[in-house]
Design a protein that fits this description.
Blueprint (H helix, E strand, L loop, with lengths): L1 E7 L9 H13 L3 E7 H4 L16 H12 L2 E7 L7 H8 L9 E7 L9 H11 L3 E6 L5 H4 L10 H22 L3 H9 L1
Parallel strand pairs: 1-2, 1-3, 3-4, 4-5
The chain binds flavin mononucleotide (FMN).
Flavin mononucleotide binds next to loops.
């Protein structure tokens, strides 16, 4: 079974977007689609970036744990709120501290807001930095508007068939990318490109 890590980005007091991370964990497990773990940046509480992990002399156990979970995951879901049209510093901090771990990693982004637009302005900037990190950003979106009404704290979705369908499609796209990657025959590609 595939292993998916869900990064919950908000470290804000009284945060709401964590419920979306909980929803995905339950969804993946209940449908037996993958094993899922939430990587909660509020629990990790990484210090402000001062150097990449690979250059740190004595990285914290938390950072080593986070890096290993990103490295070993078949795919990642990032749940991020939109703050002033961008992503919170916490997620940039957690992305910048790693490097090789992101390479060719399928990453799906879910954006969240308490207003009507579902944090959808974040998607471009976050996709861009992940592209810079050579991750594989999944071409799917799951914007969550009015998060306070859409999910309860435990991650249960309010009755909303349209949103449930969008969530299923979002997960399917991520699983498709994970499966496609797992089927890649690297030697075959090498043969083709060397001709
Ligand atoms: C500093 C800050 C900036 C925000 N900027 C935006 C914004 O640009 N667009 C938006 O739709 N919501 C914005 N919001 C509202 C958030 O979408 C809302 O607070 C949401 O619950 C944030 O996720 P969180 O509760 O998990 O931190 C902002 C909230 C904060 C705290």
């Amino acid at each position: 079974m595939y292993k998916i890590s869900i990064i919950s980005s908000s470290v804000r007091r009284g945060r709401k977007s964590h419920s979306v991370a909980r929803y995905f964990k339950k969804y993946l497990e209940e449908h037996k689609l993958a094993t899922a773990e939430i990587l909660d940046l509020d629990k990790y509480r990484f210090p402000l970036f001062d150097e990449r992990l690979k250059n740190l002399k004595s990285p914290s156990p938390g950072l080593l744990d986070f890096a290993e979970k990103i490295r070993s995951a078949d795919g990642i879901i990032i749940v991020t709120p939109e703050y002033n049209g961008g992503y919170p510093a916490s997620i940039k901090n957690a992305i910048d501290v790693l490097y090789d771990e992101w390479h060719r990693k399928p990453v799906a982004i879910s954006t969240v807001s308490d207003g009507n637009f579902g944090g959808s302005q974040v998607i471009i900037s976050l996709q861009f930095i992940l592209w810079k990190m050579r991750a594989w950003t999944v071409p799917a979106m799951f914007p969550v508007p009015n998060v306070q009404d859409a999910f309860d704290e435990e991650g249960n979705m309010s009755d909303n068939p349209a949103m449930a369908k969008r969530a299923a499609n979002f997960i399917n796209e991520l699983l498709w990318c994970i499966e496609a990657k797992s089927r890649m025959d690297i030697d075959d590609i090498k043969g083709k490109t060397s001709k």
